[in-house]
Amino acid sequence: MAPEASPERSCSLHSCPLEDPSGSSGPAPTSTLQALDPSGPLAPGHFAYPRGAPQEYQEGSSLLGTGAQAALCSHSSNRSPSPASSQHDGVWKPPSMQRHVVSVRQERAFRMPKSFSQLIAEWPVAVLLVCLAVFLLCTLAGLLGSQLPDFSNPLLGFEPRDTDIGRKLEVWKALQALTGPKKLLSLSPDLEPNSSNSFGTLSPAAWGRAQDSLVRARRMVEPVEDKRQDSFLCGAPEKSYAKLVFVSTSGGSLWNLNAIHSMCRIEQEQIRTHAHFGTLCQRTATNECCPSWSLGNYLAVLSNRSSCLDTTPGDAARVLALLRACAPYYHRGVLVPSCLGSGQDKSPHCAQVPTKCSRSSAIYQLLHFMLDRDFLSPQTADYQVPSLKFSLLFLPTLKGASMMDIYLDGLAEPQLVSDNYTSISGMDLGIKQELLKHYLALDTMYPLLALAAIFFSITLYLRSLFITVMVLVGVLGSLLVAFFLYHVAFRMAYFPFVNLAAVVLLSSVCVNHTLIFFDLWRLSKSQVPSGGLAQRVARTMHHFGYLVLVSGLTTGAAFYGSYLSRLPTVRCFALFMGTAVLVHMAITLAWLPASAVLQERYLARGCVPLAQGPRGGSDPWRLLLAVHRRLRGFRRAAAILSRLLFQRLLPCGVIKFRYIWICWFAALAAGGAYIGGVSPRLQLPILLPAGGQVFRPSHPFERFDAEYRQQFLFEQLPADEGGQLPVVLVWGVLPVDTSDPLDPRSNSSLVSDPDFMPSSPEAQQWLLSLCHGARNQSFFGSQPQGWPTLCFVEALQQWMERPACARIGPDLCCGQPDFPWAPELFLHCLKMMALEQGLDGTRDLGLRFNAHGNLAALVLQFQTNFPYSPDYGQVHHFYTEVSRWLASELGRAPPGLRRGWFTSHLELYSLQHSLSTEPAVVLGLALALAFATLLLGTWNVPLSLFSVAAVAGTVLLTAGLLVLLEWQLNTAEALFLSASVGLSVDFTINYCISYHLCPHPDRLSRVAFSLRQTSRATAVGTAALFASGVLMLPATVLLYRKLGIILMMVKFVSCGFASFFFQSLCCFFGPEKNCGQILWPCAHLPWDAGTEDPEEEKARSGPVAPGSCSEHYELQPLARHRSPSFDTSTATSKLSHRPSVLSEDLQLHDGNCCARPPVAPSSPKDLLLDHQAVFSQCPALQTSSPYKQAGPSPKTWVRQNSQGQEDEPLQASPEAPAHSPKPKAEELPDGLCPSASTLEGLSISDDTSLSTSEPSTRVPDSMGTSPENLDDIRKPAPELGQLNGKRDTLWLALKETVYDPTLPNSHQSTSSWKGRGGPGDGSPVVLPNSQPDLPDVWLRRPSTHTSGYSS
Where is the composition biased (Polar residues) (predicted)? Predict the structure, then answer.
């Protein structure tokens, strides 16, 4: 096999042109023009004459300046060099050129940047250093100006604040904390320590956030008289002990000897052998660790065995028979702790219990604690072989952080706690919060893997590690600046743990911006390859800057909309994330283009050859080169597939099936709305965040709380121990929360009511009637003995009617039957009664005295008959009923008691109420802000509405999918759901801005333009974010798992809605031209062409003084390297029915060259000869043809004068070479196509695009004929469409007019160039073609404002 002739050049980190340094043979071609050093000030697109070079044509052409430093510039192809132009035997042979530049400029040592793009292009290092300095200063100020974040309690702030219910709960919490001896308030005016009243008597510990909403531990059983059992099991089990739940591995019943022995072995091997167990366990009188309360040990006690491993099948059968006989008495409520033992003082109903059931407490404890509720229940008591599904084991150790080591060493791995018979599937060790902090640090690897996947995708897409590192630095810098603004500017004291999710979410926003920017950067480079960096930055930022501004403002506004929530964590996250997005938007506008310029200038050219020749280099290098070639082949195949998919199939599929896409995605959005909002909808939480789900559902801690806790009867809260909802009525303290609503660590203080006056006769009568009215309400329940009273006035009345009421001595209160009493007597007697009640501490009368002994507040309580329930509907009914009754009572109250309020055990209800109402409002506000920002950015109403419709469809479908995943609407879910609006905006805005900036007026062309321009980057970004979300799924912490699910779900759904639903809406109802556009004075739209008078434009531009700066123009190749069936330069959109546009291949550059007044030609013939001389001497203006070579057959045509008469017949030279060197076209970026037609992948036409509005004037084909032969050829002119036997004339629209041969030299000034080219100008500009038998190029200049990119 012959070796390859062109070994590639490669760079390990960056993408660069791959060339063979030894591939070209022979001496280098010579020319009168030579290129400057690439590192010189004119690089990469400027070239000048060397000293001594012939400059035969320097006068008589206004195209060239007369300054000493004026230069005619040329840039030949760097891939296939061709010989210089020469003349042999009178035949002029033009070179084959691909990139041409004509520049007239005056060099200076330093230029002040005139625009932002020039600043980026000329000073990228300075821009990056300024950004880094901002990062460093803000980081130091943020860290030194505030305290470091404290994540010791990650779930802090997950409860609502600053709501009506939340404010009352906070004030009630503060009132409880400030009541007691030596505190702000007391239960009696006697503040001495001998008072027996304490804070604990105010209310049961079952409610109040100070006790973490844990049920008050009660004594499970009364002391029993079975001394043998007590000495073996160390008393009765309690809720404060650690608990383990065993299940059968095979799914069978646990009531068999193998399973019972298995439970004993697992406990002995994994728990009791731990080094710390001996120091934590409860000990017996002999200083030994107590045995566990387990099924095996109770079986040993009842069978008189020394160990659970000594039990036999007969023991199990006898105990089962005993349990079967005693279970009916337990389920009827007769077998209770008071009936156990052999005591004589038992209640009468205990006589119904057989002695064998009450002799020992083991039977009761087995049924109450150890066995599940379905075992031997009334429904299963008749089963011949009852099934025991779950069995509980109480360890003789207290729950708490001390159990952390035992769990991590012996219980964390599933294989350690299971065997062939049983396994531990649920635990309650009291270390859930400590374990959460442990796993939050341990599972950080999963978000880091997600970040690595995101930035690896950027590296793979851009093939540049430098750009990836710079993008990562930009993201981290944006977060640090946002942290500074969060703490220092916004004065936020609390930084929740969920704010760290902004790292992943901001990276998801950044990857979209990065991919879009470099797609536009490559597109501008391919369209103007010889243009300067300033021009490339300007072309790229014209589109990208607009997109980033609209996207950043819309995303930031969507995140800020979540600030409406009353959950402190959600509000803090909204503020931080919105600020981070806006900071990243501002930094990206400078950081990303400066990084691209830095890479283009210094790093992209730093590639070294891998081999010195076709066979050069060592074996490892050749192996590496072969691998590189193979990978390059794969990359080319992927590029072809990408172009096929995103340039042809996707636009065709969207436009052709737009009816299906609209119906399909509208149905998906409607279905998501129904599932998420109607039925079955997102379920509200049933536990407070402190006891809610924080790990994955299969974790033993979560399974105990969600599944196993309700399987045991001792976990049910009896009615006499706080199972009923209480009502707490408060007067004297206003429900004003003075704490910081954004800092859950702050506590509220008490605000007294200045109008509080309970001692007036009207107030006394109203308080007594309130007591009587409450008793008549349907929700008033039985009051437990010792419960705080509601009717303290009635109690005072009964106390004062007694003759000897005061045991502490005679007083005026005794024997006062008259009611109401005088205010002074009423207050005095209240104090005396409170002092007397304080001596024995029998009950709380609801009186709160301040330090001066005055009555400061009233706290009246009573029990209702509403049972406590996690169901939102039942508690809402309770709250509504009590609120209605209290509002009617307060309406009749005297002025001093009208500011009363009530509260109850409503912590969970407050959270449920906020979550049931806020998400819809927050999402609606976020969508409204997104619409307003889009409208301000585009000033187009239909595009803004369609974009918001796509975002709303994404949010609704996401909510429906979350319901199908059985998510509960908890605080974390509400946070991620509110963030879904901000996350789903990016992709839709990509298409919206691209559609808005498209130069075509018709909607189908604009849809195809936007799809071809941004769909590839959108798809790659979606794939990267989907992969990052998948990498977070194995995390143990639920917060990380749900973040990954939300990330991949929202991005995937938003990509579908943006690419299909939004674009299909634009196909039907998309704005055309000015439809739906809010027009402003002096506004120019991309499709507004030919609407301005040339004379007005010339007058506005003003005259140009001598010596003013001229312009620098570029003409790109009109033919690109395409397959025969993909002739893009002549493609006509069959959907838009309009000719293709190639106007963007010519760009205007500022120059500093001073022009000299040109010399007027003597005749039109001299003008034409001068024109041809310029082109023959300056190959920079020669251009390749967009048509295919057909043959060297000469054709004849003529030039007409301005009166339509034939002037000179012209004939193409027969000696023109048939096979001229064809330079290799520059390869475009994968998936990008700056071609003429916006729908080139949909319908390709081989017909030439015609402009029917232009004149059909003909000029000589100077590129096919030598200037010396012009006068010797005269043949009749062909008809329109018969030029050279090929196709009709190709018309191009220029943004600026260049040299016009039909104008006299006196008009060839800079001002005349800028003032001509309007629709009324009938004299076209002619550029000769490089092929001898192909037509010239006709140029015209309409006043068209485009987006800077070819369609």
Answer: 1125-1134, 1303-1313
**pTM summary value:** 0.72
How far apart (Å, rounded) are the C-alpha atoms in residues 558 and 981? 6
- Residue 903 φ then ψ, to 5°: -150, 175
Q: What angle do CA 27, 30, 31 make, to 5 degrees?
A: 165
Inter-residue contact 356 to 325 (CB < 8 Å): yes
Provide the 3-class DSSP secondary structure of residue 195. Answer: coil
Q: How distant, in Å, are the alpha carbons of 149, 977, 1059, 1141, 1310 from that of 999?
A: 50, 37, 20, 9, 27
Q: Are 471 and 451 in contact (CB under 8 A)?
A: no
Distance CA 1158, CA 1307 (A): 9
Gap between the Cα atoms of 133 and 129, Å rounded: 6
pLDDT digits (tens, 9 = 90+) for 485-538: 999 989 999 999 999 999 999 999 999 999 999 999 999 888 888 778 888 999
pLDDT tens digit sequence for 1309-1330: 333 333 333 444 445 556 666 5
Q: Quick check: 229 and 303 in contact, CB under 8 A?
A: no
Which residues does residue 849 pair with via DSSP β-bridges, in sequence order?
186, 855
CB 60, CB 1161: distance < 8 Å: yes
Res 984: pLDDT: 92
Q: Angle 971-983/502-527 helices, nearest 10 degrees? A: 10
With beta carbons less than 8 A apart as the criterion, state whether 802 and 814 touch.
Answer: yes
Strand 1337-1340 to strand 1290-1293: parallel, antiparallel, or no bridges (unpaired)? parallel
Rounded percentage of the chain residues whose pLDDT exceeds 90: 40
For the segment 879-933, what is each residue's pLDDT rounded down to a tens digit? Answer: 999 999 999 999 999 999 999 999 999 999 999 999 998 899 999 999 999 999 9
Q: Measured between alpha carbons, how far is 455 from 470 in angstroms, rounded to an integer? A: 11
| CA-based nearest residue to 591, from 458, 461, 474, 469 | 474
Q: Positive or negative CA dihedral for 710, 711, 712, 716?
A: positive
514, 701, 929, 1027, 1232 from 457: Cα distances, Å: 11, 37, 31, 10, 18
Q: Side chain identity at 161, as an amino acid letter? A: R
Query: How far is 520 from 526, CA to CA, in rounded Å?
Result: 10
Tell me the two tokens of residue 581. Answer: 């997005």
Distance (Å, whole) CA 1245 – CA 1250: 12
